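Researcher: Here's my situation. A collaborator sent me these components and asked whether they could plausibly form a single complex. I don't have experimental data yet, so a predicted model of the whole assembly would be a useful starting point for our discussion.
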Amino acid sequence: MLTNSQIERYARHIILDGVGGKGQEKLLRSKVLVIGAGGLGSPIAMYLAASGIGNIGIVDFDVVDVSNLQRQIAHSTADIGTPKTDSAERTIKAINPDVAVQKFSFKLTSENIMDIIKDYDLIVDGTDSFPARYLINDACVLSGKRNVYGSVFKFEGQATVFSPGEGPCFRCLYPEPPPPGMVPSCQEAGVFGVLPGLIGMIQATEAIKIFLGIGRPLIGRMLVYDALRMEVREMRIRKDPACPVCGEHPTVTKLIDYEQFCGVR
Amino acid sequence: MAITVRIPTPLRKYTQGRDEVSVEGANLRELLQNLEKDHKGIGQRIMDDKGGVRRFVNIYLNDEDVRFKKNLDTPIKDGDVISIIPAIAGGVPDRSGKVKKKVYLTYKRTLLNKPVIWEACRKFDVVINIGTASVSGDIGLVGVELEGPPEEIEQVIKWFTKRGVKVEPIEQTVLE
């Protein structure tokens, strides 16, 4: 049952067809793990908090740097040098003190990821490297969890929902990562500050829709956003029967060494 | 028959910054060959040495992944739109974008007074660090470490060779 203060706070949700009091209660019981508290993770965590997602786990091992502030809106100038998980928690709590925040201020690895994701209903991938992308993908496939995916580069972004059993996974799309250096990073190439905000919002929207069970989830479709053309294209993406992790004869049945897989070591 | 090809951000340096180009071709293979003709260098970013599409790049005919059609043999018709969509990781990654390679550069006499290493640094996104150097008679031998994106290293080695500098890999530990 919603308390009086919750009814006041979530009034615009409660009067909304498709959410209502029942939907809001569902959101308050939901547990989301946001991996990465950077450009994507910041707006994701803030809107999930504002919407009343009751439990938000934040994973990030980094500290706030001044060059992050152009896009990572969960952190402010006063937070420079502090762990991103601490700063994100403060921001979330300031928006909505009802939200329980769990902080994981270390690097996700093949050894620890399964133990962390097992307590969450949904995973949102806001990371920034190929080893992390493949690690999260494989862990989600192996544990049957949905993974809301988003990525950005310069003025362009991609978003989709990987749902084991229902649609493709990241490896169905891209069986192998590019060799290091083949695709320049945002550090070298730059990123339009508002871009992760928009892609992060698509991810947060999908996460909330999934909990409410409303609308058409972004499964089997990938949105490709071009900020310069101000255009969104939708690509059909399919499950690959030969996928090494979610295909008919999987060869990846447990987590591997992802840095080696991506050639970064 | 002109087909519109949508170029993703990472490949726009091959198309003078253009986000779409017009290319001829009756099927995808032909189209990609013509794309390379018009925009030198783009082909190797999309295709591997064996002529297949790289596994971190997807090509869509309109909104369909060509892997689920006839791949490179997929027929294309006027008005179709081809999109090239590579995997992107985003963010600020681990400092993994660069690799190092150690090589010996052997100079002929005619090149000894030309600033070849300086030229290479200006032309390519590669840091060249000299480890050892010796000039004797009419031959110069310089042991260097090249640091940069793998494709740039590949390019600079080709350029050295074209310039008449012999490039040989150095076994690890020679310079350290």
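Model: Some features of this prediction you could bring to your collaborator: The domain at 10-261 of chain A is CATH 3.40.50.720 (Rossmann fold). Chain A has a mean pLDDT of 94.
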